[in-house]
Amino acid sequence: MPVLVFIDQSEGQVKKASLEALTYGAKLAEQLGTHAEGVLLGKVTEDPSLLGKYGVKKIHHVDHDELTHLDSQVYTKVIAEVATSMGAKLIIFSNNADGKTIAPRLSVKLKAALVTGAIALPETGDGFMVRKNVFSGKAFANISLKTDIKIIALNPNAYKIVSGEGTAEVVSFAAQIESPKVKVTQTDKITGSVPLSEAERVVSAGRGLKGPENWGMIEELAEELNAALACSRPVADTNWRPHHEHVGQTGLAIAPNLYIAIGISGAIQHLAGVNRSKVIVVINKDAEAPFFKAADYGIVGDAFEIVPKLTAAIKNKKANG
Amino acid sequence: MKILVCISKTPDTTAKIAFTDNNTKFATAGVQWIINPYDEWYALIRAIEIKEKDSSASITLVNVGGVDAEPIIRKALALGGDEAIRISHDPQESYDTAVQISAIAKDGGFDLILTGRETIDYLGSSVGGMLSEMLDLPYVAMATKLELTGKTATVTREIEGGVEICEVELPVVISCQKGMAEARIPNMRGIMAARTKPLKVVEPIAVEAMTSTLSFELPPPKAGVKLVDADNVEELVRLLHDEAKVI
Ligand SMILES: Cc1cc2nc3c(=O)[nH]c(=O)nc-3n(C[C@H](O)[C@H](O)[C@H](O)COP(=O)(O)OP(=O)(O)OC[C@H]3O[C@@H](n4cnc5c(N)ncnc54)[C@H](O)[C@@H]3O)c2cc1C
Ligand SMILES: Cc1cc2nc3c(=O)[nH]c(=O)nc-3n(C[C@H](O)[C@H](O)[C@H](O)COP(=O)(O)OP(=O)(O)OC[C@H]3O[C@@H](n4cnc5c(N)ncnc54)[C@H](O)[C@@H]3O)c2cc1C
User: Fold this and answer.
1) pLDDT, tens digit (0-9, with 9 covering 90-100), for A89-139
2) What is the dihedral of CA A278, A261, A153, B24, to 10 degrees?
3) Ligand 2 centre and the CA of B122: distance in Å?
4) Residues A155, A160, A166, A168: what is their CA dihedral angle, to the nearest 10 degrees?
5) What is the pLDDT of residue B123?
6) Smallest-distance ligand from the CA of A207
7) What is the distance between the alpha carbons of residues A68 and B226, in angstroms, rounded to a whole number?
8) In this complex, which of B124, B158, B168 lies closest to A181 when CB atoms are compared?
9) How far is Cα B38 from Cα B64, in angstroms, rounded to an integer?
């Protein structure tokens, strides 16, 4: 019974989160002695067969204009049809915005148990158990899935993309497409920057920066690191920075490889959104700031002196190795 | 305009996370319970704002929970809900929760069903989507804005690296997050009024669970911070490059 992976695209580009899901699906298939296939909805700019390098053998492509934007009802029906036609018992999504929209519907439609926010491959020896984040990243839960068909939504940045050789066979899947009830009238993308949810490095700043006029040095550091920008909640609430940069309990939860927190005290609600980062660096003038307890590396000192020096040191390192 | 707002109960954001019974249960001793922030700040307050503009609108609150959920239901009534239904059941998974709510929503004639983006304890982000499939309604998740014009909802939803604006005819299920509304606190008049607002308790329907939680684990503690001198940022760069291998 092959594993089916939902391949998410936006404006014709396959998302990074989907490459993680593909790698995860292929690895899981290997663990179960089967193979992985993908389902791709809508038009893409690159040849989908190239996705074979992430380990999928076959891609069911439904190329239809009505699938340009996500409508969860339309998408769910098509994915269910593909899953049923190939007898998939395991379906993998990324737990990104689209995954969160579709996977719960599909779970009901296929009577399939769902775990969202998985962070590792399931244990499949005795039963079927998936590990997920709970309590805003402060704990894990081991969930047992008890139905014949199972759905896993993998947390973004939780599974490393592995690519090798290979191309996938692309078959076009003929599905009955209804016209979407949710009609997208406008898409606003923040161009030029790395999306925060997908970023491997994040530079984040808080109220310690004193005012929005001081973000220049933060942006320079982020640019030098090819990092996305983030901020604490009060910074977004006072409109020093746009809302989409707000991380924490009530903002975005992220899990980059590197999180640099500058002038952020490290309140428990802030940590809830960033504590899954692999490496945390804290720059704060107060040695007693709680953030240091959650950090891997830290510098106690004035951000206004340290940040420009840090940017220069990184530049220097890049130039001289 | 009939609005249904789904309200869940979660531990306060500063609650200590610990487990009992051989790591199979969340340790509730000493925990303060709150309305899940997404449900309160975004879903409920937006519903109240809609009602303030359209006096014919009514807000029904629904909770799946035990009698211990009543304080947070009363608080939601104090903020501005008109009536509440508590389905007397301790849900063990998102699916079970959604089945219970769908039983209320099915014949309720609601134009708008609002949920939070996710609960801050179990992080399912599933109840809204499951509910919409059970009711065969359109669903927009992680909405940051909602405007109504007659029977049309204009919703802004978050996507990777941006937002998408869409239009959908009511009835619809929407999961709400930051941007929807500004947090408020209940006033004295609201608190007084909430005491006499109807809170109906109904029995759950039997559901066969699709998942079960076997155990919980806490992450291993951090090794401790390595401090680098402020005059030696080069050392930090070296550590990030050679030791942590993140740059
Ligand atoms: C229910 C609830 C949900 C919440 N959700 C979130 C959330 O999602 N995200 C979030 O971030 N917060 C959230 N909060 C708020 C949180 O409790 C904190 O108030 C907030 O994170 C503090 O932001 P901050 O660290 O930027 O500011 P502060 O706490 O004011 O910290 C500023 C820091 O900057 C340091 N500093 C000052 N000057 C300098 C300098 N020159 N150089 C270096 N360091 C300097 C100070 O030492 C201090 O540590 C929530 C709160 C509640 C009650
Ligand atoms: C992985 C996992 C493990 C769990 N483990 C346990 C456990 O050990 N013990 C236990 O008691 N329960 C457990 N639960 C069940 C959990 O308490 C209920 O499912 C809860 O009602 C919903 O949590 P959720 O994260 O699935 O909700 P989400 O899908 O994240 O909720 C989205 C929205 O749906 C609405 N909603 C959610 N729950 C309710 C509700 N109860 N009433 C009204 N509206 C609601 C809210 O608007 C909420 O913002 C677990 C759930 C999950 C997903």
Assistant:
1) 999 999 999 999 999 999 999 999 999 999 999 999 889 999 999 998 889
2) 70
3) 6
4) 10
5) 95
6) 1
7) 48
8) B168
9) 16
**Cα-to-centroid distance, A264 and ligand 1 (Å):** 5
Q: Which residues of A touch B223 (CB under 8 A)?
A: 296
The number of the ligand nearest the C-alpha atom of B89 reads 2
B209 contacts in chain A (CB < 8 Å)? 146
Q: What angle do CA B231, B237, B240 make, to 5 degrees?
A: 135
Q: For chain B, how many structural domains are there in total?
A: 1
Could you read off the pLDDT of B133-147 as tens digits, one per residue?
Answer: 999 999 999 999 999
- Model confidence at A321: pLDDT above 80: no
Q: What is the pLDDT of residue B72?
A: 98
Residue to mutate among A299, A306, A307, with most B CBs inside 10 A, is A299
Task: For residues A249 and A145, state if they share a domain.
Answer: no
Chain-wide mean pLDDT for chain B? Answer: 96
Residue B36 pLDDT: 97
Q: State the greatest distance between any 2 C-alpha atoms of chain B, in Å, as a whole number.
A: 68
pLDDT at A39: 98
One-letter identity of residue A127: G
Its pTM stands at 0.94
B57 located within any domain: yes
Q: What is the ipTM of this complex?
A: 0.96
Query: Is A191 part of any domain?
Result: no
In a domain, A186, yes or no: no
The two beta strands, B162-169 and B152-159, are antiparallel
A204 lines ligand 1 (CB under 6 A): no
Average pLDDT over residues A274-297: 97
The rounded percent of chain A whose pLDDT value lies above 90 is: 90
- Output the residue whose Cα is nearest ligand 1's atom 26: A206
Q: Which helix (H) or strand (E) holds B165?
A: strand B162-169
Predicted confidence at residue A125, as pLDDT, reads 87
Could you tell me what percent of chain A has a pLDDT over 70? Answer: 99
Q: Is residue A222 part of a domain?
A: yes
Q: Which amino acid is at A140?
A: F
Interval B100-120: pLDDT, tens: 999 999 999 999 999 999 999
Distance from CA of A66 to the nearest CA of B (A): 14
pLDDT > 80? residue A192: no
In this predicted structure, what is the pLDDT of residue A2? 94
B183 lies in a domain? yes
State which residues form the domain around A263: 196-319
Q: Are residues A138 and A238 in the same domain?
A: no
Residue B11 near ligand 2, beta carbon < 6 Å: no
Residue of B nearest to A239 (CA): B179
DSSP string, B115-138: EES--TTT----HHHHHHHHHT--
Contact at 8 Å (CB) between A201 and B247? Answer: yes
